[in-house]
Write a structure and sequence with these properties.
The protein is an alpha+beta fold. It is built from two helices and two strands. Strands 1-2 form a two-stranded parallel sheet.
Length: 64
């Protein structure tokens, strides 16, 4: 799963009742996005931490 340029995605489609799919390998996203996610409970967040791989997000400002 890769999340890019989706700052309004505030919740992932996982919950502690459904568990984590065996096909999930990694979750790539910006650290700031990951830190801002809302969780139904902390258990699912703790279970997903090993899958999270932060990506670099560059912001370029050009002043004229």
């Amino acid at each position: 799963m890769t999340v890019k340029y989706c700052p309004n995605l505030g919740k992932l489609p996982f919950d502690s009742k459904a568990g984590i799919s065996n096909s999930l390998q990694k979750i790539h996203g910006a650290q700031e996005w990951w830190d801002g996610l809302e969780w139904e409970d902390q258990t699912i967040m703790q279970n997903l931490i090993p899958y999270f791989v932060p990506i670099l997000v560059f912001a370029i400002t050009i002043e004229v």
